[in-house]
Design goal:
- With 322 residues, the chain is of the alpha/beta class.
- It folds into two domains: 32-134 and 279-302, Response regulator (Rossmann fold); 137-277 and 308-316, Rossmann fold (3-Layer(aba) Sandwich).
- The chain has helices spanning 2-18, 23-27, 43-58, 72-84, 101-109, 137-151, 171-184, 202-215, 229-239, 259-266, 281-292, and strands at 32-37, 62-67, 89-92, 114-117, 131-135, 159-165, 190-197, 223-226, 251-256, 272-275, 300-303, 307-309.
- Strands 2-1-3-4-5-11 form a six-stranded parallel β-sheet, with helices on both faces. It has a six-stranded mixed β-sheet with strand order 7-6-8-9-10-12, with helices on both faces.
- The structure holds alpha-L-arabinofuranose (AHR).
- Alpha-L-arabinofuranose (AHR) binds next to helix 3 and strand 9.
- Residues 33-296 form the Periplasmic binding protein domain.
- It is found in: Cell envelope.
- InterPro entries: Peripla_BP_I (IPR028082), SBP_2_dom (IPR025997).
- It comes from Enterococcus hulanensis.
Length: 322
C-alpha cells in the first residue's frame, strides 16, 4: 500500500513539473550560436555586445561568445573553434574587410550559415555569408557632408577638414571616409588636409589630433570629422588644453550618438553627431531565426540612424543608454 501511494505522489509531481509546457515546447531544439565579437574598444561596442547577448538569450538561443581583443588572427581562431564545436550558426562582427575567405569557406564546407553583424567584409567574399545586419555606413558620411554644407553656407573657400578615421581597413572607416568625400565632391570649397587613424578609441583619438597638431597649425583647421564618439571625446579633451575652443573655433562632427557626445553637443563643444544605433540584437536574431528556419532573407538588413546637430531640438533627445 505504501508503495502504491509513493508511486501516485511521484506521478503527480512529474505531471505538475511539465504543466504549462506543451510537448512541442519541451521537444524544441535549443540552437547553439557562435558569436565572434571584435573587442570592447568603445562604449558603442560594449552596448552592441550587450544588445546581441541579451537578444540571443531572450530568443532562447545558447550563445558561445568570444571577444578577439582587436586581433583578426584571434577572430579567425574563434570562428574555427565554433566550426569545430559544430554550432548551428555563426555571427561574425569582422574587425577588417579582408582576409575572411578561407575561414568562411571552412564554415560553408561544414554547412554552418554565417550572419555578418555591424561591419562588412569585401564584396568578393559576399557569397560566403547569408546576410548582413547593421548600419548603412556610407550614408553617415554623406549626412555629415550635408550638415557641413548647411553650417558653412556662404562661407568662402577654403574650408579645411581634418579627419580622424577609425581602424585601418575596417569597413566603417573606409565607408565613413568615402561617404564624406562623396558628399562634398560637388563643393570645391571643402578640402581634406589631413586624414589619420585613431582606432575608434578615446586615447588614440587624442593621440591622433596631438600628432596632427605637430604638422598642421590647428588654427587653420575649420572642421574635425571623427569616425566615432570615443575618438571625439579624446579630441575635445586635447583641444580644451589649448586656446582653441572646440565647437566654436573648430566645427566638430562625430558618429555614434552615445551619451558623452550628446552631452558635448548640448554644451556647444561639438556640432553634429550621426547616430549609429548599436542596439541591433533584436533585428539580428529575427534574421538568425529566419535563416535557421530556411526562409529567404534579404542580403542586407540596415538599421536606421538620425542626425543630431546644433540645428536639432536637443532637449528632445532621449537618454541614450550607451
Ligand atoms: O563598427 C562600428 C563602429 O565601431 C562604431 O562606430 C565604433 O564606435 C565602434 O568601435
Amino acid at each position: 500500500m505504501k508503495r502504491v501511494s509513493f508511486l501516485i505522489v511521484l506521478l503527480l509531481l512529474l505531471t505538475s513539473c511539465s504543466a504549462g509546457k506543451s510537448k512541442s515546447d519541451t521537444d524544441k531544439k535549443q540552437y547553439v550560436i557562435g558569436f565572434s565579437q571584435i573587442s570592447a574598444e568603445s562604449s558603442w561596442r560594449e552596448r552592441n555586445t550587450e544588445s546581441v547577448l541579451d537578444a540571443g538569450k531572450k530568443a532562447d538561443y545558447k550563445i558561445l561568445y568570444k571577444n578577439a581583443n582587436q586581433s583578426q588572427a584571434e577572430q579567425i581562431k574563434d570562428v574555427r573553434s565554433f566550426i569545430a564545436s559544430r554550432v548551428d550558426l555563426i555571427i561574425l562582427t569582422p574587425i577588417v574587410e579582408t582576409g575572411w575567405k578561407h575561414v568562411l569557406e571552412e564554415a560553408v564546407a561544414a554547412d554552418i550559415p554565417v550572419v555578418i553583424n555591424d561591419r562588412l567584409i569585401s564584396e568578393e567574399d559576399s557569397h560566403l555569408y547569408q546576410t548582413f545586419v547593421g548600419p548603412n555606413v556610407p550614408i553617415q558620411g554623406i549626412q555629415t557632408a550635408d550638415f557641413l554644407k548647411k553650417k558653412f553656407k556662404n562661407v568662402p573657400a577654403p574650408i579645411n577638414i581634418v579627419e580622424i578615421q577609425g581602424s585601418k581597413d575596417a569597413s566603417p572607416a573606409i565607408s565613413r571616409h568615402a561617404g564624406l568625400l562623396e558628399g562634398i565632391k560637388d563643393d570645391t570649397r571643402f578640402q581634406m588636409i589631413a586624414s589619420v587613424h585613431g582606432d575608434f578609441m578615446l586615447s588614440k583619438g587624442r593621440e591622433a589630433i596631438k600628432n596632427v597638431a605637430k604638422s598642421h597649425d590647428l588654427r587653420q583647421v575649420d572642421v574635425i570629422y571623427c569616425h566615432n564618439d570615443d575618438m571625439t571625446d579624446g579630441v575635445v579633451s586635447y583641444l580644451e588644453e589649448t586656446d582653441i575652443k572646440p565647437g566654436k573655433d573648430i566645427i566638430i562632427c562625430s558618429v555614434d550618438g552615445q551619451q558623452s557626445a550628446i552631452n558635448l553637443l548640448k554644451a556647444g563643444k561639438i556640432n553634429c553627431v550621426i547616430e549609429c544605433d548599436p542596439n541591433m540584437g533584436e533585428m539580428l536574431f529575427e534574421v538568425v531565426t529566419a535563416v535557421l528556419e530556411g526562409k529567404d532573407v534579404p542580403k542586407e538588413n540596415f538599421t536606421t540612424g538620425r542626425i543630431f546637430s546644433e540645428f536639432s531640438e536637443l532637449n528632445k533627445i532621449e537618454e541614450r543608454g550607451y
